[in-house]
Amino acid sequence: MAATIVISDTGVGLDKDTQSRMFEPFWSTKSDRVAGPTAATGLGLTIAHGLAQVIGATITVASEPNKGSSFTVTVPRPEGPTAKKKFQFSLAVMWTNG
Prior knowledge:
Layout: E1 2-9, H1 16-21, H2 44-54, E2 58-63, E3 69-76
Antiparallel strand pairs: 1-3, 2-3
């Protein structure tokens, strides 16, 4: 058993080359579209992917250019002695103009 979280948008989407590199540190999916103080650092997806790996979760993406993206996070249910402990999950959403 696992918990599945799907986050979707209707943005510009990601081509296959971008999808193959999106978890690389300091490589941004937005670097060619966003500049100035709102420019991306290329760490958000890297950190999310790393944290997912630590807890045995996976992050996958389904995306096409000009059709948006859907990210699926699958978190396995703990087994053994930790299975009865309370699992707490926090989600923060930030909306930006841009």
